[in-house]
Amino acid sequence: MKCPSCDTDGLTGIYCSNCGAKLTPTNEEDPNDATNSNQENNNEQTTIQTGPQDVFKKHSFTQKKEAGLTAKKIYIFFGIIGVLILLYIINSNGTNTNWNESNYQKGIQSIKDSNWNDAASYFSILLKDNYRDSKILYSYAQSNVSLGKKDYRMAKHYLKDIPSSYNGDLHDQVLAYIKDNNDQKYKIALDLIKGLKYQDAVSYCANDDSLKPFYNIASAMISLGNDDFDMARYYAEKINNYNGYAADEINSYANKILNETTPDKIKARKKSEGVRTGMTQQEVLDSSWGKPKSVNKTTTRYGVHEQWVYGNNNYLYFENGILTTIQN
Fold it and tell me: What CATH number does the domain located at 269-327 have?
């Protein structure tokens, strides 16, 4: 097509690309060219008619559509992840339950076989999940382990975790053990005293009111061994005609301690004993050392220092009335 204004030839479209004049098709041009030109003109007109605003709207719509598809993909992705996590949790719970039940049954069988250490190990694994009655059966197994070691205090300690209302799988066996242990605890306490294991007896009987008489006898014997006659007598007097398990033996212990701690017996006993650091001057006078031949006393701003002189180069030294040094 030729521009009628500037004669530029070979143009297409509606306007001259050289001068901008509107082009008019001539009859000499190929019809197909005209058709193509018309189509191009229509396309250009459409482009012109739509304008930049319409193009922007179309672009925005495309962006929104693409954003929507992206968000949808994200939702689908996280949805799949959530389902997978849920399936994993369900599967884990099922697996964990089966694992716990397996250990539980092994623990039950170990108890039936009296394999107390194995039973305690199996039930200890289940404690963190508080699986069934594992805590009670663990305490039951541990009590038997301690009993086998003759650790009576711990054997009794574990029984505190077993309620009298327990009705689990081993209900009859566990409660029968508790009853037997309660019946045996008096014998255990007495055996400890007879075996001169007074400190063990005190530990075993502590915090159990039903064993208080045994606790008092053991404490009295410890005090008597430490020459603390006042405390020995104090504990013995608390027996007060006990009439429970092994009453004759317990009252016999109490009466013996009381007889050994009368004022006359205490004085006579002290007379037959020597001295030890920490004694007061009166305790030394009441001991087998008795009254010194002479006393050398020095008083300073720090206190009173005394030297008691006995025969055969025996000396006692006191600081503010307390025996600190023995020289013989």
Answer: 3.30.1450.10
Structure tokens at 119: 């039973």
**C-alpha 243, offset from chain centre:** 43
Angle at which helix 198-205 crosses helix 152-159, to 10 degrees, equals: 0
**φ, ψ for residue 291 (rounded to 5)?**
-80, 135
Backbone angles phi, psi at 170, to 5 degrees: -110, 35
Q: Rounded distance, CA 281 to CA 286, Å?
A: 9
Residue 318 CB coordination number (10 Å)? 21
DSSP code string of 156-186: HHHHTTS-TT--STTHHHHHHHHHHHHHHHH
Backbone dihedral region of 227: left (phi > 0), alpha (psi from -120 to 50 degrees) or beta? left
Length of the chain: 328
pLDDT at 187: 92
Nearest to 316 by CA among 300, 301, 290, 302: 290
Instruction: Judge if pTM exceeds 0.70.
Output: no
Structure tokens, 250: 């317990």
Q: Give the DSSP letter of residue 324.
A: E
Cα–Cα dist 160/169, whole Å = 19
- Distance, CA of 147 to CA of 155 (rounded, Å): 5
| pLDDT for 222 | 97
Do 198 and 222 meet the contact criterion of CB atoms below 8 Å apart? yes
Contact 317, 328 (CB under 8 A): no
Any idea what the Cα angle at residue 93 is, between residues 90 and 96, rounded to 5°?
150
Pairing of strands 322-327, 314-319: antiparallel
- Summarised one tens digit per residue, pLDDT across range 306-317 is 999 998 889 999
Pair of tokens at residue 167: 């009705």
Residue 268 CA to residue 308 CA, distance in Å, equals 22
Those residues whose C-beta lies under 8 Å from the C-beta of residue 159, and which sit 6 or more positions away, are 139, 143, 178, 181
pLDDT-based confidence at residue 28 (cuts at 50, 70, 90): very low
Domain ranges of the chain: 174-261, 269-327
